[in-house]
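S1.2 Input.
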Amino acid sequence: MTFQKLIIFFLLLPCTAFAEEGKTHLTLADAISRAQANSPRLKQAVAVTDKANAAIRVSRAYTNPSVEVYGGLQYARPIATPGVPGILQHYAATQTIEIPQERRLRRSEAESAATAARYGQKAVSLSVTADVKHAFYSALRQQEEIHHAEENLALVEDLHHRVEVEVGVGEKGRLELTRAEAELARARFAVRSAQIEYANAIAFLRVTIAAAPDAELDPVGTIEPRLTLPPLAEARERVLEKHPAIEQSRTDLQTDKTALAHERSLRIPQPTAFAEFENQPDLRFWRTGITIPLPLFDRRKGQIDEAKASIDQSQAVLNQRRLETISALERAYEQYQLADQQATSLESGSLHAAETAVDAARSAYRFGERGIVEVLDAQRVLQSVRGDLLDAQFARQAALVDLEELGAVAPGGNK
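S1.3 Output.
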């Protein structure tokens, strides 16, 4: 029988090794790198920037000249002084003369729009990175949940085994075994629930880094250590000054102001110079001239009003974005402070007390001084404290990620 088990072990060993090799150990730095390379949102932002840069080249281009070439025959009419019959040739060229101010404003508008697109790309990059961090730390949290649930299951299984033996020899009543079985079922359910949540977290992480659907990810890392935040007023000033989303709104506003000046400059007529040469059978002539459109009916009032409305719209967007950013900053700042206080309090007091209570209850149970109910109650308290501590630690980490995205604190190094 032992020999058969040994054979089965060696047959299953390659499959187990292959399963382990199929998993990808993923650090936070690797996850961010993948997202930066594969994220559709970031690729879309890059395309918008490329489009804006192409618009600059469009704004710098000069108007192409037009060339006309005509040919034909001239016939003499039966009159007293007929024309000379023969070939007619006509050549002409026209060139629009751009107004220097209009050309300068057109280029300035395109360059400002490209700058806004670059700020938008940077904001999207920060958002993608923050999403990856949230997903990554959520997966790490679920790993810890599974670890805690499995530890609790191991303790309950040990208690169940002890009670089962004691009931079998008559030292305990049947009620003690019923309680142990109920707690064992509860502990197993907690493990399965944690595993389901972990699978959901991995699926979300896979989406944020644009990984293949069949990629087996194994996040590896720890949460970042606590830090001392700068004063809220200093963080608010830094965010309002440097956050890319606000910079993008400011640049959009400047773009719209330049667009208004551009529309006003287009009211100045753009003349068109022309020159032509004609070769007739009996004579040749050339002439030059200039064509000037008269702005009698269209003074571009509609376009100018539209540009003014765009300025008002961009100003409102800028104000709204400032309010939303400050609100997000204050919310993340307060969340970090509260979660840090809660985590520190639990680490320094409640967790140690709960662990000591479990050890004392288990020792008393082994000596027959306490029943299983006291041990289970102490274990539940410990699990509750561990869960609260885990919630506080990862709430603090989530707030830190939000603060990093807002630019209130510098990223603290990837694990």
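S1.4 Remarks. Confidence is low (pLDDT under 50) at residues 1-21.
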